Amino acid sequence: MQLKNRLLPLNFFKIIDLFLLCCAFLVAAVFSHNLTSPDKLFGFLLARISAVNGLSLFALFILWHFVFSAFGSYNSRRISSFVNDIYIIVKACSVCTLSLVFVHIILPIHIFNLTFINIFWITAIELMAVLEITLQLVQWYFRKKGRNLRHMLIAGTNERACKIASQICHHPSLGYDLKGFIDNKWHGPKDCSCPGKPAIVADFNSISEYLRHNIVDSHPESLAFCLKIPR
Prior knowledge:
Layout: H1 2-32, H2 38-48, H3 51-70, H4 82-106, H5 114-144, E1 150-155, H6 159-170, E2 176-182, E3 200-202, H7 207-213, E4 223-225
Parallel strand pairs: 1-2, 1-4, 2-3
């Protein structure tokens, strides 16, 4: 049920992304060809786009979905910086724009010109960036209220583990509830754990017993490995 609840909004956001790219396509058509009314727009599109070109555009929309997936747009990026999120959007929208140029070279579509391409690229980035900012603000608000949290364990107690714990404890908007550490012996400073949180909740022999009686998410990001690798 938990996985289903996460997949439903994820699929919804995928549809929203394609809708915004379609909006960017229409905006580019309007401003590049001075189409001031809906009747002119739809009449122009029907006159300039053939059945073959229409199928090509539909295939493009499907391709755009895979482009955003390939760049990790739908992966969990709770610890990722805002600049990195925008960078992913710019890269994905740039590849989508290049796909328009590629299709135009193979199957010339009369509505495509340099102005159309530039407007589409800029508009797509702006729309996707506004959506990303809005989603982050909404998520930060609910996470600070204790909603949409991931219950997390850190395997290891070295310096890197302490840095991750400090980042999680001092930034509740990330949406992590740190349960504690897994280790056989404490290797970090005494003040490494979060205030009010146990330091070591289990060792590597008793972790299965701990998981049977405590809530820890099954998502890969809910277990951070900070173990020292012997050389």
